Amino acid sequence: MEAAALFLAPFALSLLAALALRRWWALAVPVVAVPLYYAGLRFGWWGDGVGEDSWVLLAVFLTLVAVTGCAVVIAAVRFLTRPS
Fold first, then answer.
1. Taking the complete model, does pTM exceed 0.70, yes or no?
2. Is 84 buried (19+), middle (13-18) or exposed (0-12) by CB count in 10 A?
3. d(CA 39, CA 23)
C-alpha cells in the first residue's frame, strides 16, 4: 500500500496544484514532480529503485499523462467558474 501511495503522490500533487492555482503555469508542477519522483527512485532517495530498463519511457509517458490531467482540471475549473 505504501508503494502505491508513493507512486500516486506526484499525480495527486499535480492535480491539487491545478485545482488550487487554476492557472496554466500550474502545468509546470507535473513537469517537475513526476521526473523528480523517478529521479528519487533511480538514485535511491526513496522507494526500491526503478526496476526495469524501460523506466525512462514510462517516466515520460506518466509525465505526459499528469500534464494532460492537469490541463483537463484547469480547463474544467476555468470553464465552470467563468462569469455568465
1. yes
2. exposed
3. 26
